[in-house]
Amino acid sequence: MTRFTFARIAFVVLCLALAERAPADLTVENSRKTAPDFTLSDSKGASVKLSDYKGRVVLLDFWATWCGGCKVEIPWFMEFQNKYKESGLSVVGVSVDEDGWKSVKPFIEEKRVNYPVVIGNWDLASVFGTTQLPATLLIDRQGKIADLHVGMVDRGVFESEIQILLKESAARRLLSEPAVFGLNQRRGH
User: Fold this and answer.
1) When you count CB atoms within 10 A of the terminal residue's CB, does the N or C end of the chain come out lower?
2) Rg of the chain, C-alpha, whole Å
3) Which DSSP symbol is given to 185?
């Protein structure tokens, strides 16, 4: 077995071990439910369809400009968008402000929000299981809800769950490649 193959196997084992130690509120992969789909417009009128993000980990944030906890969390989400975008994370914000873009557009421009924001409503929030703010869902690459945080949580919890979801899918991809187990190598090499 070559060093490269051994290193890949070790990486997969490490990723799977980390996933086993997921925070208690991260739903086990085979128990996750498919996230409801929606299509809404962003501040420039472009359509944002949740199902278009399949294949990426999505942090879906229900928020409002008047929500104190939301204002604390949005900079974290902007940082996560920058830090993990290349690894497969997409952040999408859904504002439930009743006056829509009148409040939201100046807010996202002032804060320089670096991810798509759409205007939703409480009916949409309730479809995702929340009637309170802030509410943030983590959706895995298969489009299934891995977690729902209602209220403010520790920034480290968000980040560790994002890392776990990104590693889950990385481990799955590596396991599906025959080279992981040396299957594409000739015997004796």
Assistant:
1) C
2) 19
3) S
Q: Which two tokens stand for residue 174?
A: 């590596």
Listed as own residue / partner, the contacts of 111-116 with beta carbons closer than 8 Å and 24 or more positions apart are: 111/74, 111/75, 111/78, 112/78, 113/74, 113/78, 114/78, 114/81, 114/82, 115/77, 115/78, 115/81, 115/90, 115/91, 116/42, 116/48, 116/91, 116/92
Match 């187990």 to its residue by tokens.
181
How do 39-41 and 47-49 pair as beta strands?
A: antiparallel
Q: Six-digit token pair at 73? A: 């969390």
Residues 25-51: tens digit of each pLDDT: 799 988 999 999 999 999 999 999 999
pTM: 0.79
DSSP states along 102-139: HHHHHHHHHHT--S-EEE--HHHHHHTT-SSSSEEEEE
CA-to-CA distance for 161 and 129, rounded, in angstroms? 19
